Amino acid sequence: MWLLILFGLLIGVLSSLSGLGGGFLVVPFLIYAGKKAQLAVGTSFLVILTIALSSLAAHWRLGNIDWKTGLILAAGGVVGAQIGPVLLQQVPELLFKRGFACLMIGTGLWLLWTARPPV
């Protein structure tokens, strides 16, 4: 129980700091804890929703939100979010794990290659 609370604290800090939502940490953690990939993904969204609402409030207080852009992106995301879980049910767990790992590695490499000082 305490390990989950402490890991949640870490996820909250990293998510609100980076804007990555926390799934990049929650999903591998839950898979390592023995959960099936589909259950890990679904559970991570509960975690992400709760953290995102809290982080949204904090960023709103700081004036760090472009509401128009965010809501336009969210409109497409709401539709896509209904398609993703249906597709995930069709993906073998091993393929998901490998694909998720490649996505995380690819994203990390992209960030390294495109990093430059702010203008």
Give a quick precis of the structure:
The protein is mainly α and 119 residues long.
Q: Which segments are poorly predicted (pLDDT under 50) over 5 or more consecutive residues?
A: none
User: Mean of the pLDDT scores?
Assistant: 87
Which structural class fits the helix and strand makeup? mainly alpha
Biggest sheet character: none
Q: Name the helix and strand elements from N-terminus to C-terminus, one letter apiece.
A: HHHHH
Ends distance: 44 Å
Globally, the shape reads globular
| Rg | 16 Å
Count of runs of 4 or more consecutive helical residues: 5
- Oligomeric form of this entry? single chain
What do you see in this structure?
The protein is an all-alpha fold. It has one domain (2-90). The protein contains 5 helices and no strands. Helix 1 packs across helix 3 (37-61) and helix 2 (23-32) packs antiparallel against helix 3.
List the helices and strands and how they pair.
Elements: H1 2-18, H2 23-32, H3 37-61, H4 67-88, H5 93-114
Helix pairs in contact: 1-3, 2-3
